[in-house]
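A note on notation is needed here, since sequence and fold are reported together in a single record. The reader may check this reading against the record printed directly beneath this paragraph.
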Amino acid sequence: MTERELIPPHLVRFQATRSGGPGGQRTNKRATKVHLWVPVDQLPLTETEHVLLRERLGHQITKQGELEVTCEEERFQVLNRETALSELERIVRKAITPPVPRVPTEPPRSVEERRHIEKEMRSERRKTRHRIYPE
């Protein structure tokens, strides 16, 4: 994947609200929690990437067709905004990355041998549980 601008800044919509958590005396005065929305259909992606994005992130897309990210980890709005943007970028990149096909492998011979030995031991253990009648 090329390093292109995945999310153009003009598409991102921010809103800051009051956050819970640490903050001391200033917690009820500052709006540090950041909500971020970006319209999925307007992102500069290919058709297949749009399909992958909607398929994998359908539960995070609102009825208006926007992908929403929230951040309230930091005490400062600027840091929360940067964190939310990087999280949005990470989520979108992960969603549009095609899955790596699984390469089938055979189990090693040692594993097969160990399994057979354990089966034999289990069989012997069960055989000894039966009562032996004298002839």
